[in-house]
Amino acid sequence: MKSIAIIGIGRWGKNLVRDFSRIAKVKICVSTGKKDNLLWLKQNYPKIDHSNDLNQVLTDPKIDAIVISTPIKTHYKIAKAALIAKKNVFVEKPLTQTIKQTQELIKIAEKNKKSLFVGHVFLYNEIFSKIKDIHEKETIRYANFEWRKLGTFDEDIFENLLSHDLALILELFGYPQRIKMKNNFGLVTKVDAFSLQLFFQKCFCNVSIDRTSNLTKKTVFFKTNKYSYIWDENVLYRFEKNKNQYKAIFQTKQTPLERECKEFVNILKRDVWDINSAKLAKRISKLSLDISKKIVRF
Fold this sequence. Notes:
Blueprint: E1 3-7, H1 11-23, E2 25-30, H2 35-44, E3 49-51, H3 54-58, E4 65-68, H4 75-84, E5 88-92, H5 99-112, E6 116-119, H6 126-138, E7 140-150, H7 157-173, E8 178-185, E9 193-199, E10 204-210, E11 212-224, E12 228-232, E13 235-240, E14 245-251, H8 256-269, H9 276-297
Parallel strand pairs: 1-2, 1-4, 2-3, 4-5, 5-6, 7-10
Antiparallel strand pairs: 7-11, 8-9, 9-10, 11-12, 12-13, 13-14
Helix pairs in contact: 1-8, 4-5, 5-9, 7-9
């Protein structure tokens, strides 16, 4: 089994420890040493070591890959150190905070022939695979991405939330021809809610995100040449005209994170280096920057 080190064991880091430990050897976790997190690790995964020292992991020849689940502002520095140390790297999205930083990491990964994998977890939802198949057969003409939740004010809304939708949109439709901002406002930070439109050659998308809402809900509605569909959590629905109602046509069996972790481990097992998701991260950063400029001018 491949040996992995996980950097960061906060809320999402714990999920990564859980799923990676099922399919690979998580040898060590590195964190700042918060008591609650250390107690959780000791109680649930007593065989996994802990350290406060990143260099201990970087210099360990038995570590095949480093998984990074730390605050966004730290991604670039840790990922760069890991790639220079010739480790394969898994980074939670977004990869970095600038296009320049992303380009630099891609170059280092290419030079050292190491994988640079970015955790765009919604791409690994089984429903998204179904949507791609539907798009090939029926062609999506309109899509509406809506996300409501409360919190995450400590991170940039574009980096932390919008990047999820942009990953899906870029994979389905490519880069938009035109961007139109509809509205935006701030409650805690400069921008905490917004809606926009993205126009492509054969379709257009609405995207709405509101992190001031007390209702937590993420849905995707899309209309093709034949049907209308709704992606709601782990169920895909299709509108049946003859019955005038939506019918569940598919439900996920695996979590997106399970499938994402398996994909990364399979890359390690094949002993190949893969930077495709890093290249996607670069395109997401560019589109996010173009959108943020529109918001500033709105």
